[in-house]
Amino acid sequence: MESDGGSEASSSAAARLLGQGREFLDFFWEVARPEQERRVAATEALLAHLKERRKDSDLLKYTLKRLVVGLGATREASRPGFSLALAQVLQGLEEIPLLSALEEIKEKYSLGKVKKKLFRNALFGNFFGVLALFQSGRLAKEPKALAECVQLLQSLSEHHAHLKDLPRKTLADIVAEIPETVFEEVLFSVLEDELSSAFHTPGQLYLLLVGIQKFPRVLRPEKLKALLGTSAVVTEENVPRLVEVLKMAAKTERKDRVLPTVGLDLMKVALKEGRFELFWTDVVENGLLADHAGPCSYMCYRLLGSALPLLSLKQLKMVLQGEVMRHYGIHVVSTKLPNRFKFAPEMELLVSSFLEGCDDPKKQLAVMVGFSTLTNHGYPVVPSFWRVVRHLLPDTLLNYISWIKSMFLAPDLDCCVEFATKRQEQNEKKTDTELTEHSVTRLRKWLIARLVGIAENPQIKREEEFVTDIARFCFFHAFFKTRKPTSKIPETETIPSVPLNESTRAVTADSFFSLLQHLNTMPALGESAEAEEMRKKHLHGLAASGEPWIYLAVQYANTLLSNKKHVEAVAPFSEEAQFAWDRMLQTVEALRRREQKSLTLKTTAFQHLLLLVGIHLFKSPAECVNLLNDLQNCTKRAFGEKTKKKTSVSAGKFHSEKIVIVEVLLSLLAQSSALIRRVCRSVFALVCQHMTEAALQLILDVLDPQQDQDEESAVVVVEEAQKTKKKSLPDEESDDGSSGESSAEEDSSEEDNAPETDSEAEGEADEAFRSMLTNVLQAGNALGGDDSDEDFDDETMMSLDGNLSALFAEQRKRVQAKKDEKEKIRKEKILRREFKIKVLDLVEVFLTKQPENPLVFRVIEPLLSVIEQSMSSDSGKQEQDFLRKTADIFTNSLCRSKQYCRNVGPIQEELHNQLESLVKRACKQRDSTVALYCFSASLYLCRVLKGNVGAHEASPKKKPKSGGGSDVPVAQPPVSSLDLDRAASAYMEALSLFFSKRKNPLTGSMFLDLFERHPIMCKQLIPTVVKSITEGARQPQQAQACMLLQKALQMRDFKLSLSEKEWEELMRDGTKQVTKTLTAMGEFKIKVDQEKVIRCLELLSCLIKMSNKQGPPLDLTELPAVLRVLGEQPGFGKSARLNDLYWNVMNFLGFARPAKEKAPPKPTADPDPAPKKRKKKGFLPATKIRKNRKKATPVSSQEEEGAKSGRKEAVAGKKKKRKRSRGGGGGGGDGPDPAPLAKKSPIESKENKAQRGNILEKKRRLKKKKKGKKAGAPLARNGPL
């Protein structure tokens, strides 16, 4: 009776809980979601729901039970959600005792009772349960529950294969969170065995270290002596055991690539015990690092990086000079090859973190110097541009710069941590002296690069003082040396202990010019009001005083040149160079005086050019002297005449000045200097805003392919003339001895060289050589008649040999001259192409800086000519680079530019003519790629014309939007400069050509782009598109017509441009044309037929959809019959896409897609419908029994193979058999039917066994459900588990 009463009570409680609705049960489903946001929201909602019903004990019990069940869920993503929810419930509802929750967890996931296949889930259920109790924050208040949780974690730590180190880490976290009294009174006795065996595993050692750091009073030296046998952790006795534990930890964490926590805590305890030197030397360097295993080495590197914030200055220097640093350097050098793990990025993060959080300048400097002196043959392993420098304090940065300078002047290799890889040691062939010199050179190269990198780094708070100091230092040691120290020149106060060699000075010079280029484009430095004002005005390349940086550099160079008593140039100027330098200074000063009167762009540009070329006198004086003379002449022409003429004359002079500047820039670009190339870009960026048509034409003439061909022909003519002159002087060359060889050598090599000469000169002047050879032989009577049988005497033979030798020598010279001529032409072509690539920089700058300049339209035709010529010429790498850059500039800087000319009123007619010519040019191309560029240029002109107000409306509307006329009907007056009829007629001709001509360079994507960018043109072009659906030249054109019409119908702007009547007529015409072309379709012979029908069906589907949604109604009476005939055509069903589109349209017409017919059942071998008897496991089938073997019917080889494959599939498992049985029953599959099996009895018996097993499993489940209902299970749904 009592049991009946209990069951009735439980069932009534379950019914009451279920009566609360689905909302409560959904909380548990949401808690199990993998999304973190949904978990948290569900947990909060569940907790709020329970707080409202605190007094409902049944609800709390049920919630606790559901959450405990979820802790061991099979889905890994569900367990953390239920653990978090349980922790929140226990934290918010303190009336639930922790012991009861822990008992329920133990009962549910008892490791002794759980089945083997659920053992892993039980382990995680226990672990997440304890984790939930710990996260509730109530463990410290209930000592008994705390002790039991710790004991449970200790038992779980034995199952390392499943839980790894999670129990140990959780145990350490619990110890770190509880108060000292609780640890001493409750946990110390429980954990005593764990603490005494601390040197066995990393987890146990970590627990001890956490206790020592958290409870130093409890785990005092006396207690440690009792536990470990030593009063400290880091002792000489414990070193071997500590090394083994750290090795275990390193190899355990190797996949995570993180520093094991036990290693960091052990280092902290060593610091606390005052035994860091012992720990680092014996444990890390002599123990862990000596293992030579990857995980151990990486752990040492991570210990090094993590130790930086914890160490004193003395300890830092010890660590940074030790073996760990040396091994780290070897790792960095040896892992530069690809596909190797590189620790350098992680070390950079560790150093950056230390520098960012360190407030001690001395420690910062020690770390920077330590990593800067880790060298491989003198070259530091850290990059010269190291991003961690941005975290240096101002004082540290200045001290670091001073250290770099002193190290550059007096290299101290003894203070460096020098290393070499094994391969370098094996291949080293230099002596000690040579190796030292080599190391000093490499170190100085890195130091100067680091110095310039600091000055160029925008993330560093730079002051003008030290930037100027760095620039002067680089310039002085690149081109000068000290004779006598003087305080007026700080760079002379310290003389290099090791003289600078030529390569070091060359690298220093390159670094200086790189820094100078950066300074010319850098905003003003400093916090002064003048610098702030210049930054607001975007003035670059100026110091805070307002002087250009390059002018300050030239002034410093002039100071050094004039102070010959204390300073000496490494390469003194010649008289010409000195004269050019002095003249340049005079001209610059004259321009500066002129600039003070009236600031003009011309004076600034010429100053910049003169100063730049002048400072380059120190690097390449021979080239710069001539260039400076040319610049002086240009300056005279630009500024020689005074402006006393009229305005028109001054305007013409202004234009000529721009031409002069462009000519100077082009002459500079002819030099092979990347620095001059960058400077020309910066100078042209200043000048391009005042660019004239004549000046721009100078640049475009360089790119003209026609002029290029003329130059090549001229070069050939000149070379031919020179060659003729050379050929007339063979005797003089032989007399001088410049090309002479001994006659014996010529005689010996005559027979070998003669065939070679003939093969090389084949097809070139063969007849002339033969005639000369005949004359020589006739002169020696070697070609006599039949009666000349007399032998030659020795004198005649010798003279004949001499003449032949001279003739063949002259022929060889002639062939070699032609080879040299071809090589010279080839090199000139390469140089000319390089020059054109540099000139493209100027075009790019102009298009980028001045997109609204009307002169932009002058660039279109030359760039297209370059693209055409490059596409039809050879495909060398240089030519491809030239073409790629031209196409990139044309596409991105011109056609896709977001800004364009706003005032095209005066040039409307010219732009319309250019648009028409571009469209015609696209139609005449042979290559569709070139045609695409021409078409894109025409679209760009359309956008410019459409986005601007016409001349008659220029005053009221200066900046109309180029929105494409989305809400503007065509009937209104035009709001742009575009002549719509004229532009549409040009595109109409192209569209007609595209649809009517079989082979043409135009593509459908071009017109699709036209429709999308300019929907306003669709109205004029769409009749041609509709007509071409049936009248297109070929199927591809007809398919493209369908595609264009479909896109046009989907554009809102196009629909707004039509009236309702025009829209209805277009819809009906489109439907008729598609119906007509589908009616004409016959057999699907080629793929093009399928593509055409696909496009037609897509258009038809679009038309019907739009008609159903918006109208107008379409006449579709003929369409079903046409489609039905189309579906019966041969080859129709080969394309799945075509089939889907076909039935999509048929669905719109009211015809349902027929279901696939099921395949007929496979014929059985036994015609008897009586069911076969189930055979017991292990019994042979009837045909396999010895007495019945002869009665078995013979089967074909194919049937036997089918039977064998069937047996293999049957053995594969129950799940696959069920899938196969389901798949075999359904028809309509695309694959061929499997071969029928003659012998099915073995397979059928196994299938019967599988079915019988499934039935038994279902019965067991039903019994369990019934038992659960009788026991009063309150749930109708078991949740997400």
Sequence-ordered SSE layout with sheet pairings:
Blueprint: H1 2-18, H2 22-31, H3 36-52, H4 57-71, H5 78-92, H6 98-108, H7 119-135, H8 143-156, H9 160-163, H10 166-177, H11 180-196, H12 202-214, H13 221-228, H14 239-252, H15 261-273, H16 276-288, H17 294-307, H18 313-320, H19 323-334, H20 344-357, H21 361-372, E1 374-376, E2 379-380, H22 394-409, E3 417-419, H23 422-427, H24 432-456, H25 464-479, E4 480-482, H26 502-520, H27 529-536, H28 549-562, E5 567-569, H29 575-597, H30 601-615, H31 621-639, H32 647-669, H33 674-687, H34 693-703, H35 705-727, H36 730-736, H37 743-760, H38 766-779, H39 794-849, H40 860-872, H41 877-895, H42 908-924, H43 928-946, H44 980-996, H45 1004-1013, H46 1018-1031, H47 1035-1049, H48 1052-1056, H49 1060-1079, H50 1087-1110, H51 1119-1127, H52 1136-1148, H53 1197-1211, H54 1214-1225, H55 1241-1270
Parallel strand pairs: 1-3
Antiparallel strand pairs: 1-2, 4-5
Classify the oligomer.
single chain
Low-confidence stretches: 1-9, 641-654, 712-764, 784-790, 949-975, 1189-1247, 1267-1281
> Order of strands in the sheet with the most strands?
2-1-3
Straight-line N-to-C gap: 35 Å
Q: Portion of residues in helices?
A: 55-70%
Secondary structural class: mainly alpha
What radius of gyration results from the CA coordinates? 46 Å
What's the tally of helices?
55
Average of the residue pLDDT scores? 77
How many E-type strands?
5
Sheet of most strands? 3 strands, mixed
Shape: extended
Q: Which percent band covers the strand fraction?
A: under 5%
